[in-house]
Amino acid sequence: MRVFVTGASGWIGSATVDELLAAGHEVVGLARSDASASALEAKGAVVLRGDLDDLDGLRRGAADAEGVIHLANKHDWANMAESNRAERAAVETLGEALVGTDKPLVVAGGVAGLAAGRPGTEADPSPAIGAGSPRGGTENLALSYVDRGVRAVTARFAPTTHGDGDHGFIALIVAAARRHGASAYVGDGSTGWSAVHVSDAARLVRLGLEKAPAGARLHAVAEEAIPSREIARAIGDVLGVGVTSVAPGDAVEHFGFIGGFFAMDMSATSEHTRALLDWTPTGPGLLEDIKAGAYGT
C-alpha cells in the first residue's frame, strides 16, 4: 500500500515509518525541513515537502495515496488555539481528499478526558467537539467522514509513548527533577497515567491502517494506569535524588505546563483494541525504560 504519513519524522511517526516499510508498504512522508527529508530518504521513504499549513500539499499527498496516517501536530503549548486550528484544517483537508474512496485514514488522538473516576475505554466517545475544543475536535471530525466513504479510524495514544530517545512528557518531568534536585509527584500521587512503548504504538498504527473497520477507536495502551508517585520514585532512584509531593496548586510552577497534566488521571484500557487487531504489546514498560536510562537518567 502507498501510505501518506504526516509527522513522519516525529517520535511516533519515525517508528511508524520503520514499521510500515518493514511490512512492505511504500511510504510518502511529509517533511518540513532538510534534516527531516534526509532522514526519511535514508530509510527508503519518498518525501513530500510541506507542513500542516500547506493544505494543497496535504490534499495532494492524500489523493495520491492508498491510505493516510495523520500523526503531525504543532504542539504549540504557548498557543494552543493555533495548534487546534491547524490540526482541524489538516484533518478536514485529508478527509475531503478521501471522500468516496473507502481508503483508510488513521488520525492520532489521546485518552485524556474520556471518563471520570475510571479508565477510559474505546467505547467512550471523545468529549472534544468543535473547532475550539482540544486538538480542534479532530477525532469526531475524522469519524464524521465514515458516512462519506472514508475508512476513518482514530488511534488514541497513551499520555506517554516512551522509549529510548523520547523527548515528550516524561522527559519534561525528568528535567524538572534535575532542576529542583528532587523528583516530585502531585498531591498524593495516586493519579495514573497509561503508557505504551513506541514500538508497540507503531505496530498498532500499522494494524489499524491495514485492518481496522471504519469508525474504530483504537487505544495504544500497554499499561493501564501507573501511579504518578511510582513514576516519580523511578526517576528519583535513577537520578539519586529524593522524592516529594507538590501541592496541586503549585504543580505548574514546579513542573511547567506539564504539571497540569501530571496532576490529571489519564488512564485507559485497550482490551477491545487487542482483540480487534490481535495486538499484543511486547515492549518494555515505562518504569523499566526509566530505570534503563531511556531519559538520560
Automatic annotation (TrEMBL):
- What CDD domains would the database entry show? SDR_a7 (cd05262)
* Transmembrane parts of this sequence: none
Query: Which InterPro entries does the record associate with it?
Result: Epimerase_deHydtase, NAD(P)-bd_dom_sf, NAD(P)-dependent_oxidoreduct
Signal peptide, first to last residue: none
NAD-dependent epimerase/dehydratase domain mapped to chain residues: 3-213
Gene Ontology cellular-component terms listed: cytoplasm
Q: Which PANTHER family does the entry mention? A: NAD(P)-BINDING DOMAIN-CONTAINING PROTEIN-RELATED, PROTEIN YEEZ
Name recorded for this polypeptide: Nucleoside-diphosphate-sugar epimerase
This chain's source organism reads Actinomycetospora succinea
Lineage per the UniProt record: Bacteria, Bacillati, Actinomycetota, Actinomycetes, Pseudonocardiales
